[in-house]
Specification:
The chain is α/β, with parallel strands linked by helices. 41% of the residues lie in helices and 14% in strands. Helix 4 runs parallel beside helix 5 and helix 5 packs across helix 6.
Length: 297
């Protein structure tokens, strides 16, 4: 399993111009981010139906030059955001080999039916929205609870809100919908920054919790702990069943005593220790000479 460190920014859109992408990663490192995800988009609704391919999803773009430049400084993950409108995406995702090359899979629904499917049956890790397209979809309580139960996370991108007032208003409305429907559980903050100017520091992003209806702890977790949980959930999806080996640092003692017998043994031992201390205290009091003085007449 790959190691990651906080803070996290799990949505930096992929740019063909390596110079722009390099500047964004450099600024993220300066602000204190240790793990980022380069996001690629795939619009399933615009696919060519007449053209049949063994795998409709694109393979992740190789970013070896970027990874070598920031090696041991920033962990760079691969992410794919799938835009879709119907549940027909499920069959294609099951048979895809390219999806296993990505660290994170996000679903971006465009209809109410796709949103319900994304929360209840989507075989990915994240539910996200593109606020620049002004898609106003609100999740209901049942779908939200089902998504949380499945370990899915919901993403709020703050980058587009820095450019337009209408986008900012829609984003606050979406965040408060998460608060009402599911008490803002499993929420992460990402930038979605297309340039270095749109990035903000992790502590500034955590302070957005007061605007989005989250508590102070939820705001801090949205850029650190929750992102780590999302990554671990995505890794378990990729690897499937695994075997873990534990190496003990000290002696290993095996016992056939049951838990009830062990508790009874500990109780008897405490009673014995208490009675021993009490007997010793009584014997000490008897051995001590009397300090009372005789009164001479």
């Amino acid at each position: 399993m790959e190691k990651t460190e906080g803070f996290y920014d799990l949505c930096i859109p992929y740019e063909q111009d390596e110079k722009i992408l390099q500047d964004i990663v450099k600024e993220a490192l300066r602000l204190g981010y240790k793990t980022i995800a380069i996001d690629q988009l795939y619009d399933h609704s615009k696919r060519d139906v007449t053209k049949r391919t063994p795998d409709i999803f694109p393979a992740p773009t190789i970013l070896k030059k970027l990874e070598d430049e920031f090696k041991n400084q920033v962990k760079i993950l691969k992410r794919l955001t799938i835009i879709y409108v119907d549940v027909g995406i499920a069959h294609a995702m099951t048979n895809s080999q390219n999806l296993r090359m990505y660290n994170i899979i996000a679903g971006q629904p465009k209809t109410d039916g796709a949103l319900t499917h994304c929360c209840t049956s989507f075989s990915g890790d994240l539910v996200t929205f593109d606020m620049e397209t002004r898609v106003k979809l609100l999740v209901n309580r049942k779908a939200y609870q089902m998504a949380v139960k499945r370990g899915m996370f919901f993403e709020i991108k703050y980058g587009p809100a820095t450019k337009d007032y209408c986008i900012r208003k829609d984003m606050i409305k979406l965040a408060h919908n998460y608060c009402v429907r599911g008490k803002s559980r499993n929420i992460i903050f990402s930038s979605g920054a297309k340039n270095a100017f749109e990035l903000r520091g992790p502590y500034d992003v955590a302070n957005l919790s007061y605007i989005f209806g989250l508590s102070e702890d939820q705001g801090k977790n949205a850029v650190d702990k929750s992102c780590r949980q999302l990554f671990l959930r995505a890794e378990s999806r990729r690897t499937g069943k695994t075997i873990m080996t534990l190496k003990a640092s000290g002696p290993v003692v095996f016992s056939n005593i049951s838990e009830e017998e062990e508790e009874m043994h500990d109780y008897k031992q405490r009673c014995y220790d208490f009675s021993t201390v009490k007997d010793e205290s009584e014997s000490d009091s008897l051995e001590q000479p009397s300090k009372k003085k005789l009164k001479l007449l």
